[in-house]
Write the structure tokens for this entry.
Amino acid sequence: MDTLTRMQAFVQVVDAGGFSAAARKAGKSKALLSKYVRDLEDELGVRLLNRTTRQLSPTEAGIAYHREAVDLLQRLEDLTASVRDTHTQARGHLRISAPRSYGDAELGGAVVEFMAEHPDITIDLRLDDRFVDLVEEGFDVAIRVSEPADSSLIARRLAAFRVVTCAAPAWIEAHGRPARPDDLLGLPAICDTNARNWHHWPFIVDGERVVVAVSPRMNVNGPQVTAEAAIAGVGVARVPLFAVARAIQDGRLVALLEEFELTGLTVNAVYPHRRHLSAKVRVFVDFLVGWFERRKRRDPCM
């Protein structure tokens, strides 16, 4: 029995959380998978799994081996797909990482449309505001706001990304309309804690970046609740435009300090640098580029 088959069995067992679940999912017997894993441990001379009658967990060596094995098997799958498929054919499993708030509000619809057009591709969409390591954690592509810092990653621009400062008309009447960013000092603010340095709001004043330390009246880890609180007059907020565009259009919120807004933020699809980009990643990124272009034509305010 070759090492690759044993490796696949080990990954299946760890991913499923046990031999029985892995056997059901893989359509193989529990005894056969157990044999493969034992043979792999004998070949390596290392215990990969801690086994009890009630629980199974990877050892420290098993965790490291699983991480590298997942990447190796994915690379093998990509290589096979790139040789077998033409440029118009894409199939396989696609792992995508995206910020939770942006995925819920914007990206989810695009992924659903993509799946309808590509029935041979399965999707694992992980919505998490944590900054993931694509290579380390086995993701094919990530959607990120702003320019990527890792030069080893390839980035493709999908859309502009705007963040706006806004407040309800009643709040402005009670507190006055800020004319400059430092007018926000001491005023009750609603802070989206998903943002980096969430209570320090950056602006551009006379060509220079200026940061204002606001006074949070409410902290919340999501732009939609932040927007609702602003509409209710709880405080002034700084949120992504997609969360408040409709409220600004219908007058429930008023955009403030627009001339001091940051510019240059973008939504990007990023993926590891590989000589042979798999068809599934290529068609997904191409689809997103077209999807965002169509959305912009439909709704220029976004």
Notes: The two ends are 56 Å apart (CA to CA). The chain has three domains: 3-82, 85-161+265-298, 163-260. The mean pLDDT is 86.
